[in-house]
Q: What sequence folds into this?
């Protein structure tokens, strides 16, 4: 590409908005041309108002950029949305009606019948449903941060052996709660066994993601999911304990082979943000661990370990994925890269 595609970021000052800025700095395909946030920040320089919590410095090109309001006066045609769910639905709809493409990390439109919920290695064909959207622009969504790592680990199993049912217990990082997030008095020396709305997301989103595209609708997959979600004192990286029953009789060796051989369209297309290997399995009995493995493959891969037979289900194992990279901004950017590679962005250029 000789010329980078100009994009805007909605909700640019929040923790996920910051991740977008960090990951898009020097991106080979995209360039941040506009940033927008709440009205109280409008007209101010980004560096003056943001509480920057990333480990790299604010890019100079963004630090001295003025924030705009999240409305139709914005100039960009393509936006990454990191808006809070309290305001995301209305703003994203307004911009899509005005001819803009919104690739969103917010939850509001994930279950709209004509909005795809995309993990590029799993259901890229679902992008076709955007042509049925009743707007001049479009909305595409990224799943919940805990859903993505789980589904990547399940994809080879579902394709080869069929999933019948599963139970998942999450241990979710503090960064998933945004900034300032959970009070230190609540989380230090503690586990909080509840995250509002999280269990419902994990129990429903995979069914749409693994569903079948049927013209103008997606028919959900038919397996059942039970989820229990916990907030733990880890900064980044969601760990999940998974128990799964499969439709076919298989062995541990069969599952390990399926995980090892798995790759999909983002790897074939060599998209810039795609992990070289979406799944990494560890034989060491104490792996994976957030501190050691969350950043594997640019923070875009899922790490897996402790596969063994289960007396209640067929098998059980542990997964780990980076919740603000693969589970949020990085995963959303990967969707945009896929859309560029498959010519879905042409009408917005």
A:
């Amino acid at each position: 590409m000789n010329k980078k595609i100009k994009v805007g970021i909605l909700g640019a000052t929040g923790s996920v908005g910051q991740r977008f800025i960090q990951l898009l700095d020097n991106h080979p395909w995209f360039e941040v041309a506009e940033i927008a946030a709440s009205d109280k920040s409008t007209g101010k320089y980004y560096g003056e108002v943001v509480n920057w919590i990333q480990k790299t410095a604010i890019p100079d090109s963004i630090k001295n950029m003025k924030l705009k309001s999240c409305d139709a006066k914005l100039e960009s045609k393509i936006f990454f949305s990191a808006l809070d769910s309290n305001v995301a639905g209305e703003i994203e709809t307004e911009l899509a009606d005005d001819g803009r493409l919104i690739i969103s990390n917010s939850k509001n439109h994930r279950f709209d019948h004509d909005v795809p919920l995309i993990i590029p290695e799993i259901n890229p064909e679902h992008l076709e449903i955007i042509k049925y959207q009743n707007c001049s622009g479009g909305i595409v969504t990224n799943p919940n941060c805990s859903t993505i790592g789980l589904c990547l680990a399940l994809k080879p199993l579902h394709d080869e052996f069929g999933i019948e049912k599963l139970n998942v217990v999450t241990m979710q990082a503090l960064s998933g709660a945004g900034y300032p997030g959970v009070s230190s008095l609540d989380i230090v020396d503690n586990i909080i066994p509840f995250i509002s709305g999280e269990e419902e997301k994990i129990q429903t989103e995979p069914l749409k993601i693994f569903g079948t595209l049927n013209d103008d609708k997606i028919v959900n997959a038919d397996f059942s999911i039970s989820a229990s979600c916990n907030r733990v004192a880890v900064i980044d990286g969601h760990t999940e304990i998974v128990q799964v029953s499969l439709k076919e009789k298989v062995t541990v060796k069969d599952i390990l082979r399926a995980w090892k051989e798995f790759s999909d369209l983002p790897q074939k297309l060599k998209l810039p943000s795609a992990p070289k290997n979406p799944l990494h399995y560890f034989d060491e009995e104490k792996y994976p661990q957030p501190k050691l493995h969350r950043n594997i493959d640019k923070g875009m891969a899922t790490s897996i370990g402790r596969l063994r037979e289960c007396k209640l289900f067929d098998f059980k194992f542990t997964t780990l994925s980076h919740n603000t990279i693969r589970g949020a901004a990085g995963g959303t950017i990967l969707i945009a890269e896929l859309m560029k590679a498959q010519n879905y962005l042409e009408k917005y250029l």
DSSP finds twelve helices and 14 strands in the chain. Residues 230 and 262 are 29 Å apart (CA to CA). Residues 145-322 form a domain with the Dihydrodipicolinate Reductase; domain 2 fold (CATH 3.30.360.10).
